[in-house]
């Protein structure tokens, strides 16, 4: 039983945890789950209706994350990082009307491209920061992000894209864009395809514009 005054919970390196119970009801605001190598399902967030930040890092057995509809009016930061068996985003992520920061990837290496971000355009009036992490055999970026008209910061990591698409060049709201470990891209191709209004462009830690 969690204390009713607890606001922040971190679960680290718990190899015996396989399932987080769906019945948890609590006014928790911040939840971090890291390095739980046998965790397969996170369903307990259903009752966390005050949750403002959810961070899930490096849970290599994770197969599913509970629906996020109940957090639509509270969640501001969502990170799902390096959970290499996941094949899709949690349901309801497109209903998170207060979401400011989103970090997603990598997903299962068996996928041929980044999972669908259908519905992400609903976040277009408030999402400010987006980090996408992919695999080297994913040769395209998820085009759905072109509808994010308030996005200011974009990080792209680990993709196998050979050139940047025109729709990315035309994303006029972006002020900072960073590329990491995209081995098929060089400075010339990035400067050619980066958003024109971006005042800061970075490749592998080196600032090449701004």
UniProtKB/TrEMBL annotation:
InterPro entries tied to this protein: LRR_dom_sf (IPR032675)
Keywords assigned by UniProt, alphabetized: Plant defense
Superkingdom, taxonomy of origin: Eukaryota
GO biological process: defense response
Keyword Ribonucleoprotein attributed: no
PANTHER family: OS12G0206100 PROTEIN, PLANT BROAD-SPECTRUM MILDEW RESISTANCE PROTEIN RPW8
Name used for this protein in its record: Disease resistance protein RGA3
Organism: Artemisia annua
